[in-house]
Amino acid sequence: MKSMKKSKLLLVSPLPPPYGGIARWTEQLTAYLNEKKIINYRHLDIAVRWRSVHSGVWLRLLGGNIQLFYNYLKFIYFLVLGSNIIHLTSSGSFGLVRDFMFSFTTKLFRAKFIIHIRFGRIPEIFEIKNYEYYLLRLIFKFSDKIICIDQKTYNFLSNYSELISKKVCLIPNCIDYAFEKQIIESSNKENIISFVGWVKREKGVEELVSSFVDLNLDNWELRLIGPIDQKFFGKLDEKYSLSKNKDIHFLGNLDNAAVLLELKKSKIFALPSYTEGFPNVVLEAMATQNSIVATKVGAIPEMLENEAGILVDVADEKSLYEALKTLSQNDSLQHLLSQKAFKRCAEVYSIETVVNQYLGIWKSLERK
């Protein structure tokens, strides 16, 4: 892997806490780049710091604007220092205002701009033509490369216009994991169904809890890891008496090392989200040899190709129930799916494989 000496990369992305998918990606990527020393880079952390995601609308707007101004000043500072390739991760929504400001400013400094789309709603946004649509059109105009993480987004943008099709490329997420050293014996696995993500309605948590309660499995636990929407949790507790259920555990927000330890123990991983981009936690579940049940959203169907997991429809509690029932009662199927998932993760999503693709883009922009 040849290093890049001329260019100064600026990676614009969030770091934990909180431990979301993009933040975990940033943590792994920066650690890898620091170890391999293949490019000179700086990092601008754009994680939410000055307000809670559960704050009221006005407080969120105030805190968001303060943070935007602060991040924008730091961004200009890095450009003045000579950063000439900008790689920005975008989760869409109101963050596109920041993304537009950064892309436009990059062009003023005659630097190269890459937008890394980390959400899976592009076709829907372009159909309804909301505020995100108009911001994305401007951002794409100022971008030199557009990285998609799922096939659906890539196919849509490739066919949208000639200008965009020349900029778009498809690169999956990655995982930094010592596959050769981390083989887990089935006998070391426990009867645990794990979930990692925000504990809120949009993650399909109610369907998961309801299915687990209805299954009434002997000697099985449901362990949910991630920050908790307290209002949602209160309704869930009232409906399912969670405080009295000794088999359902809410572990809260854990760091990545602790998340991996939990996943190494569990036999089944469930992610019944309503929407996803390319969830890193699915890669972590694959690497830790879980049999996986997940919804057909974002890049998940691609990730679980070749029978690497079971796919269910969004908000389809019956299908989720049946999938969990089948896996919990069939050890051989558990093992088969977990091994296929592990093999696919090692072959397709290792960090070296994916970073080589990023490096190809950075080098192509370096030559222009």
What would your notes on this structure say?
The protein is of the alpha/beta class and 368 residues long. It is 48% helix and 18% strand. The protein has helices spanning 21-36, 57-80, 95-108, 122-128, 131-142, 151-158, 162-165, 205-215, 230-240, 256-265, 280-287, 300-303, 317-328, 331-348, 351-366, and strands at 4-13, 39-45, 85-90, 112-117, 145-148, 168-170, 190-196, 221-225, 248-252, 266-271, 291-295, 310-312. The strands form two sheets. Strands 2-1-3-4-5-6 form a six-stranded parallel sheet, sandwiched between helices. Helix 2 (57-80) packs parallel to helix 3 and helix 8 (205-215) crosses helix 13. It is globular and about 65 Å long.
List keywords for this structure.
alpha/beta
* Whole-angstrom Rg: 21 Å
Q: How many helical elements?
A: 15
**Beta strand count:** 12
Main beta-sheet annotation: 6 strands, parallel
Order of helix and strand elements from N to C terminus: EHEHEHEHHEHHEEHEHEHEHEHEHHH
Q: Considering DSSP H and I runs of 4 or more, what fraction of the residues is helical?
A: 40-55%
Contiguous low-pLDDT stretches (5 residues minimum) are none
What is the average of the pLDDT values? 92
